[in-house]
Design brief:
This protein is mostly beta strands. It has no helices and 16 strands. Strands 6, 7, 8, 10, 11 and 14 form a 6-stranded antiparallel beta sheet that branches. Strands 1-2-3-4-5 form a 5-stranded antiparallel beta sheet, with no helix packed on it. Strands 9, 12, 13, 15 and 16 form a 5-stranded antiparallel beta sheet that branches. The two termini are 18 Å apart.
Length: 214
């Protein structure tokens, strides 16, 4: 599944892929980018879980190819269980499940790469019954305002706080949270969140039916 931004001619794709082989089954998490102009896709894979031959295998890799009904995927597992080191500087972030409490929505973001990553841009669609978006936090407060209309793109905004407040260190999890004027609806399918990092990776929270960022 994914989110496509027609104004920028690119998309963010993410999801879970299960493969079945004679050596067992494996569940992969993938995050990546799609570009309409170059008809290309690229991103990162992480092996989440597996059976039999995949049971203790962990690691991550890259995929790339041509966008379309069928495209090539090139996956190279890495990590201590494979004997192959992961390439340094790999930018790979994974978002967890949305959680809801009163007028706040939280989304945990985990950096699985080898280097710290820095928040760059946030796009969010929310149910208008939530009222205005009044605050954004990444652990600490990074934005305040009165944003109405049910959607927001932070492109061009100046974040509050210090540079370190936008950073997620290696294997660290930080909650990206959104505070609204009224109680937040608790249906994940009413929200779409896309986050880009300065290092080049992105992740999305999207559930069918997905809202469309404007």
């Amino acid at each position: 599944m994914g989110v496509f931004d027609s104004s920028l001619i690119h998309g963010v794709n993410y999801g879970i892929l299960t493969i079945y082989t004679p050596q067992g089954t494996a569940d992969f998490r993938f995050d990546g980018q799609a570009n309409l102009m170059s008809l290309s896709v690229m991103g990162s894979f992480a092996l989440l879980d597996g059976t039999e031959g995949y049971e203790h295998l962990r690691g991550q890799g890259q995929f790339f190819g041509n966008a379309g009904p069928v495209f090539a995927v090139h996956y190279t597992p890495c990590g201590k269980h494979t004997g192959d080191e992961c390439e340094p500087g790999t930018c790979f972030v994974r978002g967890g499940e949305l959680s809801f409490h009163k007028n706040r929505v939280r989304w945990p973001l985990t950096n699985y790469g080898d280097e710290p990553i820095t928040l760059d841009r946030v796009r969010i669609v929310w149910p208008e019954d939530n009222g205005a978006l009044t605050e954004v936090r990444l652990g600490k407060r990074i934005y305040t305002g009165q944003l109405s209309g049910g959607h927001w793109d932070s492109d061009g905004e100046v974040w509050l706080g210090h540079d370190s407040d936008l950073r997620i260190n290696q294997y660290q999890t930080k909650d990206l949270s959104f505070t609204f004027a009224d109680d937040a609806g608790a249906a994940p399918s009413d929200y779409t969140v896309v986050v880009d990092f300065e290092e080049g990776c992105a992740t999305a929270a999207v559930a069918f039916p997905a809202a469309t960022p404007e």
